[in-house]
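User: I'm putting together a teaching handout on how sequence relates to shape, and I'd like one worked example. Could you take Class I SAM-dependent methyltransferase from Streptomyces cremeus, show the sequence you're using, and then write out its predicted structure as tokens right after it?

Assistant: Happy to. First the sequence, then the structure tokens directly below it.
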Amino acid sequence: MADAALRLTRLAEELLSVPLPVRIRAWDGSEAGPPGAPVLAIRDRRAVRRLLWKPGELGLARAWVAGEIDVEGDLYEALDLLADLIWEREGDGPGAVRALRDPRLRAAARELLKLGGPCPPPPPPPEELRRHTGRLHTRRRDREAISHHYDVGNDFYSLVLGPSMVYSCAYFPDPDASLEDAQRDKLDLVARKLDLKRGQRLLDVGCGWGSMALHAARHYGVHVTGITISAEQAAHARERVAEEGLADRVEIRVQDYRDVLPQALGSAQAGDAPFGPYDAISSIGMAEHVGAVRYGEYAADLYALLKPGGRLLNHQIARRPLTSEETYHVDAFIDSYVFPDGELAPVGRTVALLEEAGFEVRDLESIREHYALTLRHWVARLEKNWEAAVQTVTPGRARVWRLYMAASALSFEHNKIGVNQVLAVKPAASGASGLPLRSRVWGG
């Protein structure tokens, strides 16, 4: 077989009913497709079997993670060209699904079977999370999902994120700013929106590796409680707190957000400590893990944990609203390899749920373009540190992160998804919000 690339190109175009926009290099060394286009290198015929058994995004993702396919050339350009054929058609399924109903296309599928070999489907790469049964967003299931994503090694994340160890959208003063400067500016923007002052109490929900907690304690003199359900994140955050001598101002807990309020009320009832609500709450890149079935509970708990006049800064990725003809589909690759059980909601739904909990929403800032820049920085850092990354985790895990970050950057750039900072206030009895008349003047 010395013409696999030509046969694959012809069959793919027949199944998809459009010209293939990338060049194919097959495992036999043959090439076919548009000259000068990015090259999709199919290194192992097992990739064809994966697509036959699991057409669409998940089949391609498994082949990518296993190293059976790769992109030679500009990864962003290749993903852009392939997006309409994969992600945008996922609702109908790629042509291989239609082949089950179309005799003409069934013949093409049989030809693909000859190319891939008549063997059973290869097992998914070990980086894929096994599906769990039971209700979504129980404490146990959420712990497992968070561990799958975050407990892959702090050394790996340091290679990708850099010294800041901030795993959320940065805030760039200009496109040429460094990632470190932009992450510092994001943390400071949050602190200024919350109007943090010395001696106040801040709850940082989903504190990650402790960057926001450290910034608030170091620069604003506040007392911070940071919570996460990732054991590895908490261990690293505690080390950073100790190194900076801030243990008297920063406490890091391995704790579910649902347990903060009951613990505080229980301590107060037992006489161990009075229940003192927090002056401010930051939730940066955490609410995507909460889920629709729990979001009302999440908003109500944060409301109860704030003192009257206290502020919440909710920093959250959002999807676009659906039309009446559209159905929401969970991204198969993201759900299986990256953020299991993660859910995105339109920002309007988030605002409505915060208001239903009693908050007054005072400001909403979209920083979508900033996340695209952030992700491109992370991809560049991963590619620069590739050899160290694959030794720190696995080649498959590093490939997962490279693909998801590059694809996510394009999603933000093309306005498929966004990210917003919502500033909300727990109303005081007097009705005063404590915000300046010009709400965009954040002080500092």
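A couple of points you could highlight for students: The domain at 4-116 is CATH 3.30.1050 (Nonspecific Lipid-transfer Protein; Chain A). DSSP finds 18 helices and eleven strands in the chain.
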